[in-house]
Every structure is written in C-alpha cells, then in structure tokens.
C-alpha cells in the first residue's frame, strides 16, 4: 500500500470523546491520536491517518509519557497529556454534557484524580505464543501487549505478573487466547481465569500450588463470559470491607477501580444526600456488592437492588445487622415503577456502562424529589439524565472523579433535585 506523505499542516481543534485530536482535512473531520488542541501536525496517510510526521506548536498541556509501552498498549490513550490538563478536560466534558441535557445554573464541579499505580481491578488478555504467555492489555485495535511495565497497576498486582506468566505457561488448557480478571481485595489478589477449554486435573493442581506459593486466596475459572465461575482453589477466606462491613466478594466481582476513587465516590454520594427523618427509605439501584450501600445504611434505611445473583447474595449476607435490605432484581426487564418508589426519600443509582434506560423514565414519572446519579459514561449520562431534566430536576452538585487515569473514561456523581426549597438553600449557601 502506498503511503502518501502530506506536505500540509493541520491544526488540532479539540479532543474528541475518545481523547483523540479532531482536525478538519479537506472538509472531513479526522481524529489523530497523541495530539492536543492548538498543535499543528503533518500526517502520512494510507487511506486513513497512518502516523504523525511532524508536530509544531507543542501544547503547554503536553507531558512526557511515563510508560515506555504508551502508544502500543491500549490501556492508556492520553499519557501525552499532563494530569491537571486531563482532569480539566474531563471536567469540561461533563459540564458540556450536562448543558447538552438542558441543565442551566450549574454549580462548580468538585474534582478528584486518582494517584498513578493504584489500580486494583484489571481485566487482562492472555495469549499463548511460542515459548510462553503474553499477559497484558490489548492494543487499541489488535493483539495483547505484554505488560512489562504499567503506570496504572497497583504494585501488589504488578509483581504477580511474571510468576503468573510462568504458571500459565504450564496450563495445558490455555492453547490460544483467554482472559484474566483480577481484583485486589483486603485478602489479597483474587483471580478469575477465562479459558475456553476445560482445565485438566493437572492444570487445577498447578494452579492450586501456585495459589499457595504466591499467597493468592482464590483462583476461579470459567470458559466464557456469562458462565458461572468454578472455584479451582480457595485455601483461605476471601473478603473485602466497605466501611466497617465485611463482604464475601464473589469471583470476578465489580469493584471501583481504585481505593482512593472509591473513597471520593462514596464521599460525593453521601454529600448529595438530603436530610432524613427516622422512617425514611433510600432506594439504591445497581448496588453491586455494597460499595455505597453500607455507607448509605449509616444514614438511613436502604433498599438496595442488584441484578447479578452473586453480587446480590454477597450483599444480602453482609447486610445482616445493618439497615440495608438487599433485593435481587433485573432492572432492565423489571424496572422499579413509580408506585415502587412511593416510599422513597432519595434514589441513588450507579448503572452499568450502557446506562439505566427505561428505568430513568419511571424515575422521572415517580414522585421522588432527590436523585444521586453515578456514571462512568458521559455519553450515556446525557441520555439517562434527559427524562429527569424534562420532569423538573435541576443539578445541585457535580463531582468529577478521574479514576480511569490516562484514558478518556470519566466517573461522575451528579446530585439532582426538584425540591425547590433544597435548591434555593443550596444556591444561597454557594453564594
Ligand atoms: C457500575 S456497577 C456499580 C456497582 C456498585 N454501585 C459499586 O459501585 O460497586 C453496575 C452494577 O449494576 C449491575 N447491573 C447491571 N445490569 C443490571 C440490571 N439489568 N439490573 C440490575 N443490576 C444490574 C451490575 O451487576 C453491577 O453490579
């Protein structure tokens, strides 16, 4: 294929939603990775943009990437941006999203950014190659890259990678590609392997030996996403604390990706709560294993809804002696209806990446006055918050939590109310 080396210079206008720089070339919008607004680039093409040949007007927001795999590994797309500039960009994106919904009179956003090397949850790709195993993240569009260094991963997980490669190389069932889901819990790393073929008894014995040598409490396996994990080895208890409540976390469970971000998220949610009377009930939707539930339970009675059976069971077991009442419910198939929310003082919801969909319409139609919406997807946030805006909700507080460091993903907590008294008071206090 012939590569056309353009002599033309192109100015980067802004960052698009995936973090790539947008520029107009011959009237068509193109996205260029690794650039910043205001920078001028000369590009080579092979139908699409192939590479940056030259860059001028380097932005003051430009930073030296901290990882030598940057550009190859798909885990980070924005290491060429300084962390303060990244947080500012993410915050502007959220403010723009809220304006797009139609909200006006927005409060200043509170901001938090995780520290590097704090990531305690990661979904790795596995690939057998001649002489070993590749264990790392996928390229942006392509094969996995061996993670030989990482600016994101918690050191307690990073130090496991080499021993894991050695162990997995001995696993006969791993003949091609697979996955490895890792959570760093209070009891140490918890591993869930995804390998299509059945593990042999020899594979299981090797994993059991490895678990003891590497002080890993549990290793589970499933053949594909959606299958129930099988515990291969568990030789000591597996648990994690949310506040003072101990939860027996199931294999492959959802956990906020870093402890510092989890703390910031919980604080933002608690800050958004209205005042409670003794008998008030908070409805929490998409509760997971209880990241927010038990902190909420310190303030009031909580009805916590979760669709994953494993997470619901962990939540239910842990909720004894607390004010949290766990409910197993698929909120897509069976959303809470306005009458189900009649007793609700406030609704807190943290939907998955695809959003809450129809549930938002029923929430908007209910009599609920206060909502705290947690989002990891700014595009879906726009869709989900539309029905609330149309039914009279206004934004009381916004927190932008950059827990997905050096990627375009953003976590946000938005407190909304249609209680005019509360709104007036908050705005008066902010003046
Ligand atoms: C973003 S996670 C949040 C979990 C929890 N709030 C936390 O912070 O750890 C979304 C949660 O929604 C649950 N979920 C996904 N689809 C669901 C559905 N249709 N009905 C109910 N829960 C669902 C997932 O199992 C997951 O626990």
Structure commentary:
By secondary structure, this protein is α+β, with helices and mostly antiparallel strands. The chain is 24% helix and 30% strand. The strands form 5 sheets. It has an 8-stranded mixed sheet, sandwiched between helices. It has a 7-stranded mixed sheet with strand order 11-10-9-12-13-14-15. Strands 1, 2, 6 and 7 form a 4-stranded antiparallel sheet that branches. It is flat and about 65 Å long. The N and C termini lie far apart (62 Å). The model has no long low-confidence stretch (mean pLDDT 95). The protein binds S-adenosylmethionine. S-adenosylmethionine (SAM) binds at residues 254, 256, 286-288, 291-292, 306-308, 311, 330-332, 350, 352.
The mean pLDDT is 95
Output the CATH homologous superfamily of the largest domain. Answer: Vaccinia Virus protein VP39
The set of bound ligands, ions and cofactors reads:
S-adenosylmethionine
Gyration radius over CA: 24 Å
- First-last Cα distance: 62 Å
Helix content: 10-25%
How much of the sequence lies in strands comes to 25-35%
Strand-pairing-aware structural class: alpha+beta
Shape: flat
Strand order, sheet with most strands: 8-23-24-22-21-18-19-20
What can be said about this structure in brief?
The chain has 431 residues and is α+β, with helices and mostly antiparallel strands. It has helices spanning 83-101, 155-158, 161-169, 201-213, 259-271, 293-297, 309-318, 358-365, 378-390, 420-430, and strands at 4-5, 10-11, 14-15, 21-25, 28-32, 40-46, 48-56, 110-113, 121-129, 132-138, 144-146, 177-185, 188-194, 218-222, 230-234, 240-242, 245-247, 281-285, 301-306, 324-328, 344-349, 370-375, 394-402, 411-417.
